[in-house]
Amino acid sequence: MYKDLIILLRPKHWIKNxxxxxxxxxxxxxxxxxxxLLSLTAFFCFSLASSAVYIGNDIVDRDRDKEHPEKRKRPxxxxxxxxxxxxxTSISLAAACISVSFLVFPGAVTVVIAYLFINxxxxxxxxxxxxxxxxxxxFGFILRVVxxxxxxxxxxxxxxxxxxxxxxxxxxxxxxxxxxxxSAGKSHRGxxxxxxxxxxxxxxxxxAVLTIVLYTFYTIDxxxxxxxHSQRLIYSIPA
Length: 239
Fold this sequence. Notes:
With 239 residues, the chain is mainly α.
């Protein structure tokens, strides 16, 4: 069961929480040990929150997952982890991340609670709404960046928020595109039937272009150039 519990937490998906470290990097605070430790704690805290959400989603989707060729192997869908254990684990992780955020940086509690609330609502309802499902995922990435800024007490650029939003949309649309491509998608999740590969390809292209355009505006913003003491940030734009 311990191995299945680890699988249930989906630690390989914690890489998404690296967005929490964006403010640390873009504010040049990564050379300060205290700020680094706060950011890493925030990363750990958000990882607990995201695992709580993943487990909750697996519980809600367990019957549909049983019909999917791959997802039926998940610990809860397969029955290797009882639903009661999954619920207890999800609640424990949610309580732990709220407690950690309150003890270390009280101002971040609101961000964590908002993330948990929105994503549990997503599991029950929002993921069944076309476009709203992807926009909700993107908002989760914005909350990660906001969390990173709150814990080290630095202002967050509007450009970074916008760049995060559109790159997250790109990732969300790409995920939907892949789910449809993997054939079992439409029968497993009804909302996928409202998308088409052509439409998703268009949305991916638009999101990618807007990400690059907004990042370009970020690099040429005079206030950003002053903060970095350089006019050469424009050379970091993806070719």
